[in-house]
Amino acid sequence: MLNLALGFASCFLVTFVIVRYADVFGSLALDHDLKGVQKNHSAPVPRVGGIAIVCAAGITFAVGALFGVNPRGEPALLLLSAAPVLCGGVIEDLTKSVSPAVRLLCGFASALAGVYFLHAVVGRIDLPLIDQFLVITPIAVALTLLTVAGLTNAMNLIDGFNGLASGVAILVFGSLGYVAHQVDDWLVLSVSLTMIGAILGFLIWNYPAASIFLGDGGAYFVGFMMAELAVLLIARHPNVSAWYAAVVTIYPTFETVFSIYRRRIVRGRPAGDPDGIHLHTLVFKRLVRHGGMLQTTRQHSRRNARTSPYLWILSLIGIVPASLFWHSQVVLSLTALMFVATYVWLYASIVRFKAPRWLVASVSHEVTSRTAEQTRH
């Protein structure tokens, strides 16, 4: 548990320093874009929270190696592998000048580094017709680059509201750590605990009110670590179904696939074009904000924070069965189908203004009460 505690404490303190002195760096650290199509905050906030998480991971891995609570070399190699995608994301956070294509290439570079340093290769997906081709190393490596870079970018895609990406990441790392404990994988367990602690230390500053954001660097780093640990579990342990990795991360993965389909097929636009109709955005606009208009920054922050629990619960549809049935391909495949069906139903219901009444978090009472109080005064 030292990894968990030290990750939490070190990230909490580093985040405090960043928040406290963010104004010193002015436009470099603060996100001043309040009107972008995917922006949902109402005041400039530092978006370099990923730096705190990386610092916490580095500190925890170093101290943990000294006390023998995590391996000495492999966590450092994992951090080294993450360097390209982390740098690409942080530079984008600071300069707003790194294109999506360059950041995707950084994701491929990090995935390739993981292949080289840690032998993290997707060698099977437990489908015989496809697995026979994965014995060919270049094909297996190509699939690894695609899946790792894909999940890395998927975490950045869902990073839209206070605590959303962080909460989902904690749940996924909790599952990875649990399965690693079941199969006695020291590396994956210790890194999972470290990431949970570090993200919790950050989350205190990000939810319910946001004093700092993950930023691209943070989302990419968290996504990459998540992807690498999932690949390592599959590569090292034949008794862990390859479908486990797909199902435990199905929320960010399917959100990305569905977004590409929606943009390219439905709307005929480039897949990389940002838009404001992700599921989490629709939840904010049509479920959480239902019943009243935004009046103050405080109300906006409350509604922002109320959005994330919807998606945390949705992600649990995949995470809980994956954690309990990590060795059963049948259960995992049925879980994947159930998640996809639930996601599509929920999305279609919200788009058509036919969401069930029990899903709507009405704020009319809050607005009415505040209006009445202002009238009395």
Automatic annotation (TrEMBL):
Family matches, as Pfam families: Glycos_transf_4
Obligatory cofactor(s): Mg(2+)
Compartments in which it is found: Cell membrane
Binding site for Mg(2+): 156, 216
Keywords on record: Cell membrane, Glycosyltransferase, Magnesium, Membrane, Metal-binding, Transferase, Transmembrane, Transmembrane helix
GO MF annotation terms: glycosyltransferase activity; metal ion binding; phosphotransferase activity, for other substituted phosphate groups
Biological-process GO terms, alphabetical: cell wall macromolecule biosynthetic process; cell wall organization; lipopolysaccharide biosynthetic process
Origin: domain of life: Bacteria
GO cellular component assignments: plasma membrane
Main location group: membrane
InterPro entries for this protein: Glycosyl_transferase_4
Annotated transmembrane regions: 6-30, 51-69, 101-121, 133-154, 161-180, 186-205, 217-235, 241-261, 309-326, 332-350
Topology in the lipid bilayer: Multi-pass membrane protein
Protein name: Undecaprenyl phosphate N-acetylglucosaminyltransferase
Species for this entry: Caballeronia telluris
